[in-house]
Amino acid sequence: MMRRFAQAGLAAVWMAAACSAVSTQPTSSITAYKLGTFAQADRTFLGLVLNDAVVVDLAQANAAFEKENAGAARVTIPAEMRTLLASYEQGGVKARLAAIASAAAARRPAYAMDVKAVRTLPPVMPQNILNAAVNYTEHAAEMAGRGTNDPAPAAAAPAEIPGIWPRKPGDTRHNPYVFVKPVGAVIGDGEAILLPANRPQVDWECELAIVIGRTASRVPIDRAQDFIFGYTLENDVSDRNGRADGRHGSDWFIGKGHDTFAPLGPYIVPREFVPDPQKLAITFTLSGQVMQDSNTERMTHNVYEMVSFVSHVLTLKPGDIVSTGSPAGVGAARNVFMKAGDIGVCAIEGIGTLTNPVMGMDTTSPPAGR
What we know:
This protein is an alpha+beta fold. Helices cover 19% and strands 26% of the residues.
């Protein structure tokens, strides 16, 4: 009898949660959640994260929902993050996730577990990562004349970029500048940043990263929000040593492309839970010392402008990342760099905390495949 009572109680929670998740309900009444990719033993799964502490196995939660609610519509929740992002607004997926979040917040189910009990993987493996360079005026000022990979700030308003970035009268900002970050450099929360041998000037850049939710090509600024699924964090780790020979000027591949130089995560926050992406505190600490302390309101080009700009060059796909640039406080500005044994912590208000230890690269082992 007690078991039947418990099942009936869980079903009641499910039904209440499902009712609260209808599209007419204001966002403030929906249980906020984040999405991530996790590993436990030999399996990988998508999870819904509550309060950065509990992760709910989405596949198991969805199966339980449909078992407890025989009349409920059948909803397919993809097992891979890029597919989930693409289908979020379709087939009842968004409402089902809201129901799962509300039910799990009301009563912790058996398929929920502590985040610390599983391994957090990069939340998504994008097809493309496009990073903004010098998108905070203060960062431009601290890097000016230092001979780094970062372009110097414009002395005066430049001409528009035909077909890509038209300029409005009175806009004195420099044009957006974007580079490609290798997808192969992505690591997750808790994974180690490896310092390449004989490259002593490895720097940090804590950034708000946009996660694309719909295929986006030549998107106007005023429609860019519709193509944003949500937000995560990226530490745009940078090698400031340069290439010594000066060939073709700066070398963005050497500067940005080493293995492990793209910590990403830990989770993705759907945009409905981020009231204003341009008013978020952003900090970076290195082994407990605050290095960056800023706010996304100081961006030169906002998140919508960056999506529009990039999409006028490259068609963006669900899961792609557009990282919005680093605020001031990087190591190159003070001749302080990461060293083995350090802990780098990138934190953005309402989005999360991305933590990565720093290790020296093992140069005693032969390269993979040799």
